[in-house]
Amino acid sequence: MDIVIREAEPTEYDPLGDMTARAYLQDGLLDFGESDSYLTELKDVAKRAAAATVLVAVHGTALLGGVTFVPGPGPMADLAAPGEAEIRMLAVGRAARGQGTGEALVRACIDRARAARGCTAVVLSSQRSMRTAHRIYERLGFVRTPDRDWSPLPELADITLLTYELTL
Hints:
single chain; 7 strands
């Protein structure tokens, strides 16, 4: 399949937000299901696009998935320190899984980071259950950085995000 990675167009924001939210819900990645406050963040692609770069994977006119590329510290960064870019909210629709879409999106983020002046690493956070994504990251050279693992809800000790880094 010919997959094209490009910046999301405003007309794709709502469909991508819905796809991302659906992927997280269907994969059981939201601890509080439909009432999880993170669902609002996942759906709000316009907000992400205003503060970072949202990339989409398309095949013809079909939207396959998307990712948010954060070029450094700022309002969309959870983890990135100076000199680091961050990958956030990677999601691939069910129909496009297993066809290289996720990897193509991650590679596009790596390429953008390499092209960014002063960027020396790409970082990301991931849930323990995202094993398919972990395989992609490790295949592309990311390594676990357990010293940076963190919780988006510190009051809930059982929610810890794993972190990865790729040195450029």
